[in-house]
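I have been asked to look over a protein record a colleague put together. Alongside the sequence sits a line of tokens, each denoting a local backbone shape. I have pasted the whole thing underneath without changing anything:
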Amino acid sequence: MKKLALYMSSTHMPQKADWLSCVTVAADAGFDGLELFGARYTREADMTPDQLDAIARAARARNLTLSGHPWVEWGDLPLAALLPRLDRLCDDCARLGEREVVLHMDFLSHRQNGGMERLFAAIDRMYPILQREGMTLMMENVPAHGIRELGSETEDFTQLFARYADETGPVQMNIDSGHAYIMNMAETLSQRFGSRWRYAHIDDNDGVEDSHVAPGEGTLDFAAFAACAAQAGYQGPLMMEYAMGKVAFGMQALRDAYGAQGYDLHALKL
């Protein structure tokens, strides 16, 4: 059986405002990792070096892997203002000991404001820091939101991985199950970019609204999604991006779907 790590998202935990408490709760529940989500990154009043160090120490003590999903909407910033913010963002993530950093393309560039070339300038700035710190940037697929948002189309990822072609390098892909369902892209993304698929957000919806409900509460076919993972040789974590109170319910559907593909999802203490 192929074992997959299980991560939890801080923003879907009752303790979401207190990342230090999230570390303890996630570890006690048996998760392998915790994704720290939000806009607190780079805000000195919210995340001092001492606070970052305390969170990192707590995670190491509990053998909990940290990843990050900074919610930074910097697509309209002048490029000269954006680039130094990326330095600080990477430094904060590294100080936390995060191994994976998940970003949306549209956080850094809009299709009508620099497009992929501006995105490449941003990633180029981050690239040496990612390499130095052993971190991986996971670019996430997103719904179009009615504006063809960067990251919503297959061609965006084709261009991304043509630019950053090293399959062992620090630029890889996060496939969000719910976003892929809304865009009807799970099979296409996994087939075209399976070798770059290293991280997965797990959530369900009705195929229209990005509601982030538990697997089995929406209409997403997780058996088909797990089959895409198996065909791509997926070995990354499954990061639960729905309410922690629903994880026990959601894991039933995930164990059935992934178990049928030869994956082992360990028991949680919920």
Remarks:
- Residues 107 and 186 are 22 Å apart (CA to CA).
- The first helix runs from residue 19 to 28.
- The beta strands are 2-3, 6-9, 33-38, 65-70, 100-104, 136-140, 171-176, 197-202, 238-240, 263-264.
